[in-house]
Amino acid sequence: MNKMKPVLAIDLGGTNIKSAVLLPDGRIIYFKNYPTPADKGPREVVKKILFAIRDTLGKTDLEVFRLSGIAIAAAGILDAKNGVVTSSPSLTGWHNVPLRDMIVGELGVDICLINDASAAALGEYRFGAGRGTGNLVYLTVSTGIGGGIIIDGNLYNGTDGCAGEIGHMIIEAEGPQCNCGNFGCLEILASGTAMANEAKRRISRNETSCISEFAGGNSDNITAEIVALAAKQGDSLACEVINRAAYYLGVGLANVVNIFNPEVIIIGGGVSKMGDMLLRPARKVVKQRAFRLPVRTARIVRSRLGDKAGIIGAAIYLVGR
Amino acid sequence: MNKMKPVLAIDLGGTNIKSAVLLPDGRIIYFKNYPTPADKGPREVVKKILFAIRDTLGKTDLEVFRLSGIAIAAAGILDAKNGVVTSSPSLTGWHNVPLRDMIVGELGVDICLINDASAAALGEYRFGAGRGTGNLVYLTVSTGIGGGIIIDGNLYNGTDGCAGEIGHMIIEAEGPQCNCGNFGCLEILASGTAMANEAKRRISRNETSCISEFAGGNSDNITAEIVALAAKQGDSLACEVINRAAYYLGVGLANVVNIFNPEVIIIGGGVSKMGDMLLRPARKVVKQRAFRLPVRTARIVRSRLGDKAGIIGAAIYLVGR
After folding, report:
1. What is the pTM of this model?
2. Is residue A92 part of a domain?
3. Do A173 and B248 touch (CB under 8 A)?
4. Are residues A12 and A159 in the same domain?
5. Run means of pLDDT, 10 residues per run, chain B, 321 residues
């Protein structure tokens, strides 16, 4: 494999398929978003990925054989060895989908598959908020919570390639049921979805909040973004909802600190845009609940690469294999 | 350092100081237990360690300069870089004790310090239940719960040398307070102490159980061992106490499976002697609560080296540095 060739990277999420062409130094020379037809099932989504790849090649005047390969970062529990998405909370109907072979069969090019949060961890480690460190944990907080682990400068994938599911760490043994089927996961207590659900629950009990107004009177429209907007205006219900999620996030981060003793924990994903409104109370919980020595060491910072972290990390992963 | 020289290894626990001489291939050629004067504070304990070392050298007719070095495995949060025990739940009054320098100052020999559960993980990986694997997590379940992590064949120590505190992973955010100050840790819910406390609590409410009889009518005498003995005789309260601890252990192990996707999880420590009485219900919880792919991979087995795992691992750590 010629390591100087460009990489085509895809980041497959529940909302968007991001497609990009990158140079081996991490520079993105082309980037485009395509909506994911998530509700139409795996076959249609794979068709859309193939469309995105061909469209990207066309727009950049590249041919497949001039690429190092194609890297796909995907949300879900991946059997990375076999290129299979075994399940995915954000993609309806994805059970044991042989994504790699489905793409290879159409394009005849080397494909590598990596979990999206693991890819983002690698991206942040090499070119983002984790540069110069050795041990880091990356958490993406958005509709769900994903995780990626860098140990002594290497991505830790685990035995099957599905390590790092920090969002599905149980922090409340008898807690509410998560999308994954388990109970009391970090994700169901601290994600954007958790915030939206908690706001909906409280508003349905007729508590007053300007969230209802921002959502146009329809509670189905309530999102973490709207909650954040209301909190910025001083809405007390919104602030409480965010503090509750921040508390649970802090509990999860305290566990990460005690288990990994990392140099840095990087928080990405849409919800991380709340910044200190979320991270300040979370850091306080970490300080109260983890051991002093590793707390002193672990910086908890926001992602630097934002929504490009997965794309960049997937490309690094492919080139570094 | 001559790697063919023997190693003197010490395992410092709250009850015993184990002292041994080992060959580089892991064979123990001398082993002795000394009671830890834990309640007398660090100075007396260090004196006892020095006594154990000198006694061991005397009994084996060795002199310090004929050793590769002295390896000390210790319970607690270690600042391994600086050779300091920053805190230890099983050793009263140990706060920032510069253990390494205190011993070096007396003996003038190279000392390395390692967490006891990390040492045991290394021992099991090289010569015990983890032979032939790459990624494993070791848990010692006794009065407390400690952890050690092997990643791609190497001990993962974290940035300061205090990674692996899996016993202080919060699994019940609002749970009871742990010895470490935190709330709802795995240790306070699933350790031997947790079992003894739960049995005491229920018996103090006048529930009937043969545990009282085994404890000679004095509830202060109740230990996890006595609970296990009663459970073996079919005592229903004892069985419930063990199942409750096994449930929480299973929750903790489910988290380990989702985060690490390990090949094997090895359970050591005194409480692990309960065997399937504890591990069968714990495995069931793991199967229910972790993702299918990593559950299928992760074997959950008992330690093979038993109470020698720490000694053996400490020696391996010293020689391999």
Report:
1. 0.96
2. yes
3. yes
4. no
5. 80 94 91 94 96 97 92 92 88 92 90 96 97 97 96 96 97 96 97 97 95 93 96 97 98 98 97 97 98 97 96 94 79
